[in-house]
């Protein structure tokens, strides 16, 4: 290997720049390789634009460790020539595979580091099968990627959600209100569960445990009866009623998960008789500086990705298992979502503390 490229795909997450820095420094300082960043997901290598590749060296990445977002840019809506969706499956086109191979030969790129979530890893797995030497790095604030105990970005998002609950507590208490915080996570409840425990929420609603309004009212009434006349509810954007589907809203003609906090506030006002307010935390969870933990995790992932390439270990993702950085084959992490185990330790601990999950069986 003489030259590698890296790209960031899908939604951004705190820690992306820490990976870019670690990959660059490890590649240059340990192996003497050249490094280029591909701009805007894979668009920078697929398109004919002149600025698609950004040369990277230790100097170029010297100040980006604490910076949120990604200096390379990222896209959720990739170049339409990259893949088609067949029977719900993302299938990378032959055009894109050929184009990437041709561009790699043209620019002398020997291997690629793909930094992203499930969507990016699905594309990376197909590129690897098409003969492109590549290693994946798992990113998402949702922490829902299988194969790894943690994705970077999750811890920073959790800090933001916990801080929001701390702030909501003082205003909830002053006004004797129910404050409902809606957090991200797609169809997984990791952010909601962890933030709910860290922020001392009284009700936690996650997609893995479908809820009903009655047990929530009962939990709130019990608090009011104890003269603790305020409550914090954290609800995952993908949470759903026991007999319902997740809630969606539309932005610019696109269907997006969310809106459940507002709906729940109305239910609590009407059915439980308490004052309630909804707060949607949204993309604040994805912005800003990564936590110290995420900086360290992202740095370890980036460094190990480069060592994998040096060993000729391609088609793998670097992961965290038992506090150690390891690798698993790309095909093992795609097409599935890591959900919160409903009888796992954290849920049991939370139930033991008297936290309600709005579970009809409570
Ligand atoms: O996967 C990360 C995530 O932030 C989810 O938690 C959320 O549902 C989604 O991305 C939001 O995506 P967008 O950036 O397209 O609004």
TrEMBL record:
GO molecular function, one term: monosaccharide binding
UniProt protein name: ATP-dependent 6-phosphofructokinase
Family membership noted in the UniProt record: Belongs to the phosphofructokinase type A (PFKA) family. Mixed-substrate PFK group III subfamily.
Annotated pathway: Carbohydrate degradation; glycolysis; D-glyceraldehyde 3-phosphate and glycerone phosphate from D-glucose: step 3/4
Gene3D superfamilies: 3.40.50.450, Phosphofructokinase domain (3.40.50.460)
Enzyme class: transferase
Presence of the UniProt keyword Nucleotide-binding in the record: yes
Localization of this protein: Cytoplasm
Keyword Metal-binding (UniProt): yes
InterPro entries: ATP_PFK, ATP_PFK_prok-type, Phosphofructokinase_CS, Phosphofructokinase_dom, Phosphofructokinase_III, PKF_sf
Assigned keywords, A-Z: ATP-binding, Cytoplasm, Glycolysis, Kinase, Magnesium, Metal-binding, Nucleotide-binding, Transferase
Reported function: Catalyzes the phosphorylation of D-fructose 6-phosphate to fructose 1,6-bisphosphate by ATP, the first committing step of glycolysis.
Binding annotation for ATP: 11, 77-78, 117-120
Binding site for Mg(2+): 118
Species whose genome carries this gene: Ardenticatena maritima
SUPFAM superfamilies: Phosphofructokinase
Gene (UniProt): pfkA
One GO location term (cellular component): 6-phosphofructokinase complex
Recorded coiled-coil stretches: none
EC identifiers of the protein: 2.7.1.11
Subunit structure and binding partners: Homodimer or homotetramer.
